[in-house]
Amino acid sequence: xxxxxxxxxxxxxxxxxxxxxxxxxxxxxxxxxxxxxxxxxxxxxxxxxxxxxxxxxxxxxxxxxxxxxxxxxxxxxxxxxxxxxxxxxxxxxxxxxxxxxxxxxxxxxxxxxxxxxxxxxxxxxxxxxxxxxxxxxxxxxxxxxxxxxxxxxxxxxxxxxxxxxxxxxxxxxxxxxxxxxxxxxxxxxxxxxxxxxxxxxxxxxxxxxxxxxxxxxxxxxxxxx
Length: 225
Known about the structure:
By secondary structure, this protein is of the alpha/beta class. Helices cover about 40% and strands about 15% of the residues.
């Protein structure tokens, strides 16, 4: 059994209310029909993620945003590799592939250790010099504390667009050229409001919505007759 694809990987397909043949599957009918639903489900889900990633990247390009458009780890259990692959095909960054890719300190980690400074310092003793540390921050003051403690990336979480732009500019101005720290925006950012968050000073925008509640692309398989 083999598949011949009629389009390059990542090509945009616009059906315009008509069916488009994207591939031809050849082989014994029994084997094709046994694998039909599994294959269509995977293709539909991955294509839905890729399509949203492509739209978000297009929004960024139209805004002149030079930063990274990324997904998150909010993926379907057992399906992470497929969904992360969809992000890449759509032109987005996968962010962390798993917990070993980077340390991300969120509110629970900070509360458990008593402060941002404690959380960063304890994480660094385990992660060593080679693994980056990111800290989720609710204010500019928290971001500066994280940076002073040694964080490599600060996430400005759930800021509105005007707050985000002011905080990013202030942090970059405070650092000057003495330290390179990436600033990530996340929280409540969707395809509908993404352009508002693509402001100067932001290096990364991450979207949980790249994989959450993504509509599948409708594919079907028909036996030629």
